[in-house]
# Entry
Amino acid sequence: MASLANICCRALTGFRSKHRSSSNSTGRAFEQLFVTLIANPYSKPMQVNQHTDRKALMQKRKRASIGKADFVSLAALDEVQYRLDLVNRTFKKPLLAGWQGGLWAEQLASFDQTEDAETLDVSSKTHDLIVHGMSLHWSNDIVGQLIQCRNAMLPDGLFIGVMFGGESLQELRKVLAEAELQFYGGLSPRVAMMAEVRDAGQLLQRAGFALPVVDKIELKASYENIFHLIRDLRHMGETSALHLRKRSFERKGFFELANELYKQHFSQDDGRIIATFEVMFLTGWTPHESQQKPLRPGSAKARLAEALSTIEVPLKD
# Structure
């Protein structure tokens, strides 16, 4: 069977032959994107496992003004506090991992705190609670971050990770893609890909957490236009820091077109546009012998039919 690389190379060869005499910008844009993302995935500017440009992320966070757009963080903090209130335990050595310039550091000031670097500055088996606040979606290795957190925790410790989910900014993602196709004839990465709820539980299991639970909240915000939405994202420090982001200025008219498309597809009756912010909460415990465990298959001592007061009907072979 032909390898994916060979198939891609044949497709690119055919595309070049078809558009050899054309100066169409669509062809050039597609070919450039193809070569960058598919044909040679290990050449610069792409690096293995580099989802986020950490230097750019730090610069955007320094310019952020989280107090001017704090509704997502405040809602997430309320949810974290609600979950902690449900746990009948006093945590003696809690840790906050995440961006230290925002509300999280202020609201959880009693916690030990560490930056969300790729390698966390933590000691082994030290903390009985770790809250990873709104940073996991920018990690180049989410499972690695979770494993580091688990290793820093005492047995039967609680982990709560908070991150943006896959439905976040879905409207912005769609209109930017449509606008770019119309304006440039091609696509480039703009809105970061984020984990889905169904995948997050598997991440916790891979990291070795017991009793994993993942849930979410969804916030809807309305804006006068796309420029006000982007302003809020700048205040949050959440504009694109993708490693493969476009690094040149946009041509005049691009965002005006994106704004028109946004209003066409995702506006309210009053003309304001809608933006979705999905926040996921990853909860797990470090393993301990006192935790409940599933029974071995076939070890039941009572029949389900008896418990339900019904007749058991054997299945046919």
Notes: Residues 71-86 form the longest helix (16 residues). The longest strand covers residues 210-223. The radius of gyration is 24 Å. The mean pLDDT is 83.
